[in-house]
User: What shape does this take?
Amino acid sequence: FDLRYPGQVFDEETGLSYNLHRYYDAATGRYIQADPIGLAGGWNRFGYVANNPLNDVDPQGLHPVLGRIQGLYYRYGPAITEFIAGASGVNGALASPAAISPLVAQIPTGVSRMLPIARGISEGVESGAFCAAKGGIQETAKIGDLFATHGQTMSNRQLDRLIKDIRVNGISNPLVVTAHDGRLYILDGHHRALAAPRAGVLDVPIKRVDLPYGAYRGSADLEFTWGGY
Assistant: This one.
């Protein structure tokens, strides 16, 4: 019995499944090429939909798509084709509206339910609220995996206000970090890193940069100091 994930075509010559942009090896459960979009698709560049094939699919071999969204295509795609093929007359008027199948008749209802969602997503992308949709997937890191390079420089009262703000609004600006000897050092965002766990936030958005950056000229500047930069 030949069973593959949606969008995959079996290649008899290689014994692999072709996924438009990459080849998938069902025996190992991995792609044999790294994800061409890099880490934007997740940490594992060879995994299939972040190892969550029950909820997501990857018809193009690039990035996960929610299975229920992909399912709309598989459900209504043939119906839409039938709808178009059944049209005739001037401007595509239907020859016999009564002949529309029950599945085709569901299209207007399904579309009407999807429109508010589509509008909300569009507004979120345009406003920048969905940073992952507008500028790629936002990388995050656990607070415990980040190393501070200086101590607290704002007052406790200011820090308390920051904690309350993060508790309500989250962290919108990513912490700027740099990698050195297998560690991630904070260059900008120390107080957000201090406030986040106290606000119940353990995973924070990060932005990776290379040195030199601002007052950090080299790796020697990554050693912890009590003062600020």
